[in-house]
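Re: that backbone. Tokens:
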């Protein structure tokens, strides 16, 4: 009889242990974020995403870049009708090739003086992350003093 009690308690403990282990989507997000770190991204929770319905459920990926002049800084948000410019313009920033190359999941991109920040819902595969890295490589290098 005592072996039955030990067996039931062991089964309960093992079942609870399995509940604590990461599964499916959580493991994928961990792999995605680790790969992003290898590419030079920092994953950040953005408070402004909570106040903007277009950025709902988005996570910020920031990448450090060489300093750019203020005239090259820009901010764009993807809407149903295309990109909306919040700061800068396509002519002054030179960002249009980057916007064209960004994966569909990107909801917003902010080019600041020393970094670029993208907001997106993390994808199901690693390919959009690689496409994001390739697209950001198209950002114009700082040429103005």
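Recovered sequence:
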């Amino acid at each position: 009889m005592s072996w039955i009690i030990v067996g039931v308690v062991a089964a309960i403990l093992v079942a609870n242990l399995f509940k604590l282990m990461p599964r499916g989507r959580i493991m994928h997000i961990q792999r995605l974020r680790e790969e992003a770190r290898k590419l030079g991204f920092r994953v950040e929770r953005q408070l402004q995403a909570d106040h903007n319905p277009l950025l709902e459920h988005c996570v910020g990926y920031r990448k450090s870049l060489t300093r750019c002049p203020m005239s090259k800084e820009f901010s764009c948000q993807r809407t149903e009708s295309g990109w909306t410019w919040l700061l800068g313009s396509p002519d002054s920033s030179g960002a249009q090739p980057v916007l064209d190359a960004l994966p569909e999941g990107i909801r917003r991109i902010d080019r600041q003086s020393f970094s670029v920040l993208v907001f997106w819902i993390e994808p199901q595969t690693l390919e959009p992350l690689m496409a994001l890295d390739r697209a950001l490589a198209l950002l114009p290098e700082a040429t103005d003093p």
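The chain has a mean pLDDT of 83. The first strand starts at residue 41 and ends at 44.
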